[in-house]
């Protein structure tokens, strides 16, 4: 017959002691040791996973920061490209307008080539203006020629003047054709003495 040692353990809250045999105690100790080992493994694994989580959080934070920097760079690049595109569109529109104007001007030049002629301005009382030639068209208002003359000889803007062609006074707000001015006519600039 085998002798089994029994150990008693008293619980403070219990009045009856719990009785365990030696093999049960050894079995419990063994299970406790296994559980402590498992607990230690789980603790180490938990620590590793927490370390990985922390690393991933840092990487995520860095990647978010890097991503935001990259996004900002791309937004800036988009703004620059949009400005360039806008400028190119404006250039294209200008070229289109120039081409349209060129076509219109070419047609106008061809139609009006016969209308272009030259007149010569001279001052009557002085030698200030001698043989000053201006190219014009028969449909130009005389006042436009006068304006061009004053751009070349600005001092005459300060005087009261009148113009004569072929001994006839010129009316400023009539066309050259209406004033009977033709190619190579000499127009005299006169100062009013009043």
Write the layout of secondary structure elements.
Layout: E1 6-9, E2 18-21, H1 22-112, E3 116-123, E4 132-137, H2 142-152, E5 161-165, E6 168-169, E7 186-191
Parallel strand pairs: 3-7
Antiparallel strand pairs: 1-2, 3-4, 5-6, 5-7
Question: How does this model look, in words?
Answer:
This protein is α+β, with helices and mostly antiparallel strands. The protein has a domain at 116-191: Roll (Ubiquitin-like (UB roll)). The chain has two helices and seven strands, in the order ββαββαβββ. The longest helix has 91 residues, at 22-112. It is rod-shaped. The termini are far apart. 7% of the residues are buried.
Report the β-strand fraction as a percent range: 15-25%
How far from one another are the termini? Answer: 161 Å
Q: What about the largest sheet?
A: 5 strands, mixed
CATH architecture of one domain: Roll
Give the name of the CATH superfamily of one domain: Phosphatidylinositol 3-kinase Catalytic Subunit, Chain A, domain 1
Query: What share of residues is helical?
Result: 40-55%
Q: Number of DSSP helices?
A: 2
CATH class of one domain: Alpha Beta
Report the order of strands and helices.
Answer: EEHEEHEEE
Number of strands: 7
In spatial order, strands of the major sheet run: 4-3-7-5-6
């Amino acid at each position: 017959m085998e002798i089994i040692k029994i150990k008693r353990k008293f619980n403070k809250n219990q009045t009856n002691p719990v009785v365990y045999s030696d093999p049960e105690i050894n079995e419990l100790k063994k299970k406790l040791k296994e559980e402590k080992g498992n607990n230690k493994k789980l603790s180490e694994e938990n620590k590793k996973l927490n370390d990985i989580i922390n690393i991933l959080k840092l990487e995520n934070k860095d990647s978010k920061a890097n991503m935001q920097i990259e996004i900002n760079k791309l937004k800036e690049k988009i703004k620059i490209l949009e400005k360039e595109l806008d400028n190119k569109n404006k250039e294209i529109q200008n070229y289109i307008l120039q081409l349209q104007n060129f076509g219109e001007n070419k047609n106008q030049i061809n139609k009006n080539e016969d209308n272009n002629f030259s007149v010569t301005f001279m001052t009557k009382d002085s030698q200030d203006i001698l043989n000053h030639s201006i190219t014009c068209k028969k449909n130009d208002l005389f006042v436009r020629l006068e304006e061009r003359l004053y751009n070349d000889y600005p001092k005459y803007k300060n005087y009261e003047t009148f113009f004569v062609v072929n001994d006839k006074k010129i009316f400023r707000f009539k066309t050259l054709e209406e004033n009977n001015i033709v190619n190579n006519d000499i127009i005299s600039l006169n100062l009013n003495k009043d």
